[in-house]
Amino acid sequence: MSEPIKIDVWSDIACPWCYIGKRKFEAGAELAGVPVEVEYHSFELSPDTPVDFEGSHESFLSDRKGIPVDQARMMLERVTGIAETVDLHYDYAAVKHTNTVKAHELIHYAKTHGRQLEMKERLLKAYFVNGEHVGRIEDLADIAAELGFDRADVVRALSTDEYLPAVRADQAQAIEYGIQGVPFFVIDGKYGVSGAQDATVFAQALTQVAAEKAAV
After folding, report:
1. What is the spatial distance between Cα 64 and Cα 84, in angstroms, rounded to a whole number?
2. 138, CA 20 to 30 Å: which among 93, 102, 149, 207?
């Protein structure tokens, strides 16, 4: 099979299961041994979060879910342990909780330069592993410059909301598809896989689609 299978993924930057799901999908694609073409789409889990959020991640989770702080801490410890199983080293003590809309705009900016996947990976690592701020334009521009993008042009694009319509279009499409949680994977435009499933689940889905395409 030479033609890659298109994979559309809705996810957020501030989504621990999205990073875990990314790794599990990558492992599944490798298991299946079929070529894939991945495109990421914007989804904001918490669009009302301020850019400069004050407080711990535990307190945010506690307030959002209406649970005790100790329970929120246990949830974070659990997801951190699961992340370790796919070689991701989350550092919630360093996480800077923030609004992610500008990060999504930056991913669209990178997409126009053919480097969306690289930017997506870098921003997830920035948030969960490095403790970098991914909500402020200046910080995002620094990250982009580190990857070799024109810093001044990134600041211009983010300051003028150049890619905000693209973010909103992704979100509108998610609503149309009935997507209410992320990560959500759409395989070949017709099969949906919700959540950070095991690599074998993704491998089976990809193998099935590859067989269907080969039979046409």
Report:
1. 25
2. 93
